[in-house]
């Protein structure tokens, strides 16, 4: 298996950007959550600057990775690029359930519309 985020293959900025993308956050969104400017986050992702310890701890918590993984690529973090990682089973089951519920809601919406039309036309008066 290719270790995409190891110390030899990736920088802190690479791991930060990958974890942010996997979390579904934009640079602006993550910067806002951290209370920093988007330019500051961008400089971290481009390895032009490093966050202070308190921000590093916040980053790890918000991105659901360990501080050690952000710094070295070892520990709890991502296995591969966000777009290429396999969808977790629980996520695919949840998506399937959401689609099932959406189908039921669409059926109910159609039934409600028919009943409203009946009432408006005075069929059941």
Question: Per the principal axes of the C-alpha atoms, what is the gross shape?
Answer: elongated
Q: End-to-end distance, in Å?
A: 70 Å
The assigned CATH architecture of the largest domain is Orthogonal Bundle
Helices and strands: which structural class? mainly alpha
Number of helices: 6
Radius of gyration: 23 Å
CATH homolog superfamily of the largest domain: lambda repressor-like DNA-binding domains
- H/E element string? HHHHHH
Number of structural units classed as domains: 2
The total beta strand count reads 0
Q: Helix amount, in percent?
A: 55-70%
The CATH class of the largest domain turns out to be: Mainly Alpha
Describe this protein's structure:
The protein has 125 residues and is mainly α. It has two domains: 12-72, 434 Repressor (Amino-terminal Domain) (Orthogonal Bundle), CATH 1.10.260.40; 87-125. Helices cover 62% and strands 0% of the residues. The chain contains six helices and no strands. Helix 2 (27-34) crosses helix 3 (38-45).
Name the descriptors.
coiled coil, Cro/C1-type_HTH, Transcriptional regulator, single chain, 62% helix, 125 residues, mainly alpha, 434 Repressor (Amino-terminal Domain), DNA binding
Give the helix/strand layout:
Layout: H1 12-22, H2 27-34, H3 38-45, H4 53-63, H5 67-72, H6 89-121
Domain HTH cro/C1-type: 16-70
Protein name: Transcriptional regulator
Coiled coil: 98-125
Give a short summary of the structure.
By secondary structure, this protein is an all-alpha fold. Helix content is 62%, strand content 0%.
